[in-house]
UniProtKB/TrEMBL annotation:
<dbReference type="InterPro" id="IPR001611">
    <property type="entry name" value="Leu-rich_rpt"/>
</dbReference>
<dbReference type="InterPro" id="IPR032675">
    <property type="entry name" value="LRR_dom_sf"/>
</dbReference>
<dbReference type="InterPro" id="IPR055414">
    <property type="entry name" value="LRR_R13L4/SHOC2-like"/>
</dbReference>
<dbReference type="Pfam" id="PF23598">
    <property type="entry name" value="LRR_14"/>
</dbReference>
<feature type="domain" description="Disease resistance R13L4/SHOC-2-like LRR">
    <location>
        <begin position="86"/>
        <end position="166"/>
    </location>
</feature>
<keyword id="KW-0677">Repeat</keyword>
<keyword id="KW-0433">Leucine-rich repeat</keyword>
<dbReference type="GO" id="GO:0005737">
    <property type="term" value="C:cytoplasm"/>
</dbReference>
<dbReference type="InterPro" id="IPR050216">
    <property type="entry name" value="LRR_domain-containing"/>
</dbReference>
<protein>
    <recommendedName>
        <fullName>Disease resistance R13L4/SHOC-2-like LRR domain-containing protein</fullName>
    </recommendedName>
</protein>
<dbReference type="InterPro" id="IPR003591">
    <property type="entry name" value="Leu-rich_rpt_typical-subtyp"/>
</dbReference>
Length: 262
């Protein structure tokens, strides 16, 4: 009848906290939590990774700023509607996973997360991204799919390290010309939007681009093929495809997908 038998995270509270402190990893995925755990906030500098995925947490407290050594915050599939501005004080943060919440806007202070490498906030209710996102110069992955975005900010072109941008299933109508500045961009996914054209220099200037997916958009294959840099883009794409075959990587039944509906 002891409390240990019913503890969803396993072990007594004291032993769990001791384990968290020794490893720096706090694992509370699927723990049926409704509030952000105070015992985690009290650990302050000891937390390196915090996984709160798939709970029922509705609020992230401002005190999260005490976790100044945290590098990974995984808080997907909860009930969060807003994030505190204090989130910007987590200067060590490299990975932030917020997918599957109810977030409609991100705080401007997000731009203070200068070490952030991965930001995933798909399946939310975002209607815009803050201009300060351009301050994330170390960002490699940005996933904003399945939101309500009508545009991407011009400042996204300042995310100098960006390699993958996923913005599928939004209502994006036009893309900022600054995307052409993303010389490390390898993959741009914009399926199921309202994109009529892409910036003129995108295929020419984004010399690392290997994957561009624009299915279910008003843009036509003819428009795409007439763009400057199209042939070079095709060569890069086919080279990647050949490498996948050589490595026995599974590919779809479509084969070499051109990325644009005909």
């Amino acid at each position: 009848m002891g409390c240990c038998a019913s503890n969803p995270a396993g072990g007594s509270k004291a032993s769990r906290i001791s384990r968290w402190r020794s490893t720096g990893i706090v694992g509370l995925r699927d723990a049926k939590l409704k509030t952000f755990p105070n015992e985690v906030i009290e650990m302050e500098r000891a937390v390196r990774t915090l996984d709160l995925t798939h709970n029922k947490i509705a609020d992230v407290p401002g005190e999260i700023s005490k976790l100044i050594n945290m590098q990974r915050l995984l808080i997907a599939d909860n009930l969060i509607e807003r994030l505190p501005g204090n989130l910007g004080k987590l200067q060590s943060l490299k990975v932030l996973m917020l997918d599957g919440n109810h977030i409609s806007c991100l705080p401007d202070e997000l731009g203070q997360l200068i070490r952030l490498e991965q930001l995933s906030i798909s399946r939310n209710m975002l209607i815009y991204l803050p201009d300060t996102i351009g301050s994330l110069r170390n960002l490699v992955l940005l996933n904003v799919s399945n939101n309500r975005l009508k545009s991407l900010p011009e400042s996204v072109g300042s995310c100098a390290s960006l390699e993958e941008l996923q913005a599928n299933d939004n209502v994006v109508e036009e893309l900022p010309a600054s995307l052409c500045n993303l010389i490390h961009l390898k993959s741009l996914c914009l399926d199921n939007n309202q994109v009529k054209q892409i910036p003129d220099g995108l295929l020419k200037d984004c010399k690392s681009l290997q994957n561009l997916s624009l299915h279910n958009n008003p843009i036509s294959m003819d428009q795409f093929q007439l763009m400057e840099g199209y042939q070079e883009f095709e060569e890069r794409r086919k080279k990647k495809f050949d490498k996948q075959i050589d490595s026995n990587v599974m590919i779809s039944s479509k084969g070499l997908d051109v990325g644009v509906d005909k």
